[in-house]
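Notebook entry, structure prediction.
Reason for the run: the old model in the group folder had no record of what sequence produced it. Starting over properly, with the input documented here first.
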Amino acid sequence: MAPVHSLEEIQLLATKFPDHIKQVNVYKDNVIVAGTTLFLTKTTIHPQYVSGNSDKNAFGSLDLAYDYIINHFDSSKRYFDFNISSEENGTALNSGLIFWKESCGARTYVADNYLIDTACYKTLDLQIL
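New structure, fully documented this time:
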């Protein structure tokens, strides 16, 4: 699956919002083995583009990254958003992924998704006063 943003877009966003976009990486012998880009809001830490090399499970590199972020990154945040645990456009639950997230202390909830036909709005005029 292709990322939503290119590396150049993330770098541009990070320069424009230096207090709201951070990169956390884990290294072994000066080689990156895992990492994630953090998007920070007033209340929430949201990791995106989480990745680890083929040894990530043997090293526990993603566990280390998440432990650091959750426990040491910013105690002023109220939420840590683990993101979705579904696949196939929300029709299948990734049970291994949800097991890992729950082992980190996450709790699940079901988020409803809606498809809204916006064609009817094309005939409306919007004025902002």
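Summary: Strands lie at 21-28, 31-40, 44-52, 79-80, 86-87, 92-93.
The old model has been moved to the deprecated folder.
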